[in-house]
């Protein structure tokens, strides 16, 4: 029996996408620290340029905090219609090379180029050409990770950011994973990384040294996923047509929050992130859930369902605020908040021809190698 062909997977990730679009369109912003967001009392940063990140400004940070950290910060209101238009251009470029495109958001996607339309001999050359085409068409830079599976390709795309690419070949995959901190692994969030650290697991090598029985005892249904990725194994296909049951976004704060206004600002940021996906995908749900994780790692959720779908951004914001206010004020700090929309009303879905353009983001925490994982790079 013939050996199965090694897959060629590219993960393309735009560099500081929203902020880079603003710097492209306004020459006075180039080379300056820029954040996309609102300066209102409850405004939050949606994206930050690399110049702003050098000052500690990042997405989900309250705008007032961002301006304190970087007084010279240019705070620009978001232009989502423009970002969507640019995303269409980028996805059209992807389609010049392959049909197997799995978007994760407006600014990143997996591509399976095992067989590419241009007949290019290697995935490295293909990624380089795609990045050049994106720069030519949009004036923006992208980074890429190239490997034989999705897990490694996504890890690799961070390796040469911004405006670079990195390849993880089959003969180096497992050994390369062993050198990395587990906090970088897709599917290992801050809480899980902290738990792994308490168990003496700091790197991929530490994770690989643990038996499947140990992982099952400590991580339950996620054990098989962790066991596989520690060995550079990920059999998930690039799937452009995966049906989705929910859309969620969450963020972990730099410090545990106690102030109602700061907590609400964080929730609103996640609601806006979720709404962006709902609007792009044409999926609108009847159920809104807010997740809270306290500083002592206690998790709680609050949900509300209604007869009709949440079909406006303001309605999602209002529902999310009502849910978070049901647990406020709080006497113990909150380290994480999240918002999820589910129970989709399929009758509100747009025509199928629009779906492949944007696809769906992956879930934040895959439970096993076959399922799958969220913010702007």
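^ structure tokens above, recovered residues below v
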């Amino acid at each position: 029996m013939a050996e199965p062909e090694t897959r060629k997977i590219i993960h393309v990730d735009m560099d500081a996408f929203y902020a880079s679009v603003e710097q492209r369109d306004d020459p006075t912003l180039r080379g300056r620290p820029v954040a996309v967001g609102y300066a209102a009392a409850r405004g939050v940063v949606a994206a930050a340029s690399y110049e702003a990140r050098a000052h500690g400004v990042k997405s989900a940070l309250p705008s007032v905090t961002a301006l304190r950290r970087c007084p010279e910060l240019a705070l620009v209101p978001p232009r989502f219609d423009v970002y969507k238009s640019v995303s269409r251009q980028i996805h059209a470029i992807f389609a010049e090379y392959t049909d197997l495109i799995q978007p994760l958001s407006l600014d990143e996607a997996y591509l399976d180029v095992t067989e590419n339309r241009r007949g290019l001999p290697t995935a490295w050359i293909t990624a380089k050409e795609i990045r050049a085409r994106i720069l030519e068409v949009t004036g923006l830079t992208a980074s890429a990770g190239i490997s034989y599976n999705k897990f490694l390709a996504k890890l690799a795309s961070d390796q040469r950011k911004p405006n670079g690419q990195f390849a993880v070949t089959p003969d180096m995959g497992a050994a390369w994973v062993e050198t990395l901190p587990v906090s970088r692994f897709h599917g290992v969030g801050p809480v899980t990384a902290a738990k792994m650290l308490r168990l003496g697991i700091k790197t991929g090598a530490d994770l690989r040294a643990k038996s499947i029985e140990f992982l099952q005892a400590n991580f339950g249904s996620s054990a098989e996923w962790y066991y596989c990725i520690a060995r550079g194994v990920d059999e998930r296909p690039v799937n452009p047509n995966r049906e989705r049951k929910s859309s969620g976004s969450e963020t972990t704060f730099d410090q545990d929050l106690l102030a109602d206004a700061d907590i609400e600002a964080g929730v609103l940021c996640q609601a806006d992130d979720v709404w962006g996906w709902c609007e792009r995908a044409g999926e609108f749900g009847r159920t809104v859930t807010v997740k809270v994780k306290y500083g002592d790692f206690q998790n709680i959720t609050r949900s509300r369902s209604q007869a009709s779908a949440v079909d406006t951004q303001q309605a999602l914001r209002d529902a999310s605020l009502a849910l978070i206010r049901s647990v406020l004020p709080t006497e113990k700090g909150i380290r994480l908040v999240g918002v999820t929309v589910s129970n989709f009303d399929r009758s509100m879905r747009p025509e199928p021809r629009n779906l492949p353009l944007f696809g769906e983001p992956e879930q934040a925490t895959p439970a096993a190698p076959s399922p799958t994982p969220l913010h702007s790079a």
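Confidence is low (pLDDT under 50) at residues 350-377.
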